[in-house]
């Protein structure tokens, strides 16, 4: 039985900051952010959006009356969780009006958690062929104003339906994994922003890519030239380019040029949004599917997933007939084109206006946010999630 990605949804906030202007404000050459980091714009997330509401806004695009009642499992990958006990998946299940007789669970392993969700969903569908699984990756990437990580912030959510006979991509067996206990990036319970050893994390990312790709090739006898494209987790788009360049000597010049060309398509959306953490690899996949003019059904796409701490996985997917009509590319383009630019002062004010980690009641700036699902604030220590009637 073929199992894989049947539908893909994406959401990010309607505000962004221009990276050339941010570079100037930080006394850096614009080239450092635009070329050296590889980012043109960065999504700025208002205090009326969190991991739950962004997930709901992404999932809302791929759930309708035909598939709503077939979803029997929700797997919510995030490292921006809103509670140490109650799963973000339960809030989501309620907001999306999914059935009650289903399983809903949150998964955590830094940016790797959505991939874990996809692979668990695949096994669930293999055991229950009628099932459809909703898999989420939703995060806000925050390092702090004036920090080295600031140009690699961002935020948003990816949502997928994993099912039998998928319309977009099948997920092939096997995968290659590599896990090691390293301190490249983490967020202690007392912190709202990540602690990161940026240079070390970038080296480890490439090492994990090399290890998982090598193991995958040894397990499957796959040659690089069997892959039409490789898509990467993109904490910043130059990171994926560095990893790709590290293996190009293993293929011929014509294929190396093809992989570089397809990579450029895969980084278009991330360049405009920044790091989504769990969802980043899948925004890069969506960008390739929407923007590349070279894709055909039957072609294979390699995926490299990396989550700090750290876990890496390399696996391969196969494009399905008619995938072009199933991806909904125009919606994504409109979402990105219709955003509003913030000045650096406005961005800093929005960044600093997040709901504090406190028991006090709080009201968010819902009047400026037109998204269908939003966080109205906190009352009596309970998060107040709302669905706008549109
Ligand atoms: P930095 O130290 O300020 O930057 O921070 P830099 O000095 O290394 O410069 C960056 C690049 O710009 C360099 O290129 C410069 O040469 C170039 P490279 O040597 O890397 O090829 N440059 C210029 N290029 C053109 N014109 C110019 C110019 N000036 C300089 N004028 C760093 C960079 C990425 C370290 C920082 O932003 C950071 O710490 N980011 C956060 C950590 C991160 O994203 N790590 C990635 C791997 S870990 C990961 O992917 C997991 C993660 O998503 C979390 C999770 O799993 O949950 C982060």
Automatic annotation (TrEMBL):
Entry EC no(s): 2.3.3.10
Keyword Transferase carried by entry: yes
GO molecular function: hydroxymethylglutaryl-CoA synthase activity
Domain Hydroxymethylglutaryl-coenzyme A synthase N-terminal: 2-165
Enzyme class, spelled out: transferase
Domain Hydroxymethylglutaryl-coenzyme A synthase C-terminal, residue spans: 175-248, 266-385
Source taxon at top rank: Bacteria
Alphabetical keyword list: Acyltransferase, Transferase
PANTHER family: 3-HYDROXY-3-METHYLGLUTARYL COENZYME A SYNTHASE (PTHR43323), HYDROXYMETHYLGLUTARYL-COA SYNTHASE (PTHR43323:SF2)
Family affiliation: Belongs to the thiolase-like superfamily. HMG-CoA synthase family.
NCBIfam families named in the record: HMG-CoA-S_prok
Protein's name according to its UniProt entry: Hydroxymethylglutaryl-CoA synthase
Lineage: Bacteria, Bacillati, Bacillota, Bacilli, Lactobacillales
